[in-house]
Amino acid sequence: MKTGMIGLGAMGAPMARNLKAAGLLHAVWNRTGSKATALATELGCSAAASIRALGTACDAVVVCVSADDDVRAVVAELAASLRRGGLVIDCSTVSADTAREAARVLGGGGIDFLDCPVSGGVEGARAATLAIMAGGDPAAFERAQPILKALGRTIALMGPSGAGQATKATNQILCAGVIQAVAEAMAFAKAEGLPLEQLIDTLGKGAGSSWYFVHRAPYMAHGEFPAGFRVRLHAKDLRICHSMAARHGAELPVVEATLANYRELVEQGHGDEDISVLFRLKEALFGAK
Amino acid sequence: MKTGMIGLGAMGAPMARNLKAAGLLHAVWNRTGSKATALATELGCSAAASIRALGTACDAVVVCVSADDDVRAVVAELAASLRRGGLVIDCSTVSADTAREAARVLGGGGIDFLDCPVSGGVEGARAATLAIMAGGDPAAFERAQPILKALGRTIALMGPSGAGQATKATNQILCAGVIQAVAEAMAFAKAEGLPLEQLIDTLGKGAGSSWYFVHRAPYMAHGEFPAGFRVRLHAKDLRICHSMAARHGAELPVVEATLANYRELVEQGHGDEDISVLFRLKEALFGAK
Q: What is the set of domains in chain A, with CATH numbers?
């Protein structure tokens, strides 16, 4: 299966390398062409002149771009260039609506579409250990296995088109609430003068624990928040959750509170730090301490 | 060490049984005297006529009562009856201030005090697997080991008087934030029509996961919330967190939001269900669905 890769950013570039390692990569394309040329030279594949040129040359295309509009634009070009029986795997994090629309547009030309947002960050993309949450047709999911297995480790079909994005959105809501919990609790513990490392060790084994408590409360204890999951990116994902909830007429308190906090953090220049930097806002609640 | 037990409720009664099994239990006292008589008969120990009578007869006393005022009242009686060199271990969940006050009152008479709130619920109290978060003097903590080991498994000295309560309060803030996360995410996932059991399985392995997600999201998937950690009790603990934060001039968003939710749940008659019943309020955000 000749596979093309569109979007060679922090996630897409290592994913392209893993497709190459699996013997699948045929061509790459990127909005900033110089990135595509450099990676094509590195990997010994072709840098397509356009999305359409890539679509014409490939059987399957993996997409990893930033926003809903980017996905729509790429899908329009692929609908006009991939042959019937082609396959598009979109690993971008966008709304479930965009995924369903993409599936409709491509399906009209006999092209399969899977929404396959990932989690696991840049490290997961490099190590091919991403968690992949897929939405789409079971037969298409079956066909996509060689590609998905080249990119990730935990691969689950969650339902029809959009279900992958809805699952990813659910995960991002979980992350928002948990980081609120951990940041607020740690700021309280610090104000109370507790020994923070011992606290993490003790409560990390209990019912209040979470992945974020075990792995990110230490960042708070040390007051350093090196980029892991950037505030800016989680904010983008939570805006998607906001929109998806709004379609149900719902406004979600954890999502809204966290978005407000993130706006403040971005204004303060913390947009590219790990989301555990929320600790700073919680600490500020305790005044000058 | 002749040990007395004050407070024979859902937690205190099984703790008394474990003290008996360790050969430590000498006398029991309870506000409702009939409970004390029944348990004393069952265990073959004495039912003290008063707190003072218990204090006079014992070297050490374990306390497990409901509220700050109860602890203050019990401590006043024990200060007047325990001999110099006595030891009081308070397993109630109250404010760090109450713990520090108790330590001062008892310390004046040469009696050691440890604040030792526990977590692990009624099951942990029965199985003697409680987590015990202690505050007080290291020498007193050392002396208390036979008693603490009879009651729990994870036993940590967190600092001077009040540090045990502050650690417990930190844990209760964690629980509040995490249950907010899990309930909101699960309500969203349900509204999106995702397969909830598969979702729990998939996201439970990821960075958004938590003890509550793995153990309580299934309650939400099934719409049943059998008593585990009761709304009413967590609300009581969060009011302590509210007061402790207020002493620092802080108001904590997760604590306040959860207290407001719990007031609503209690009004709706859900006060004795597990805190995962918060899912009902989150579901209601999605309208009639």
A: 3-159 (3.40.50.720), 167-288 (1.10.1040.10)
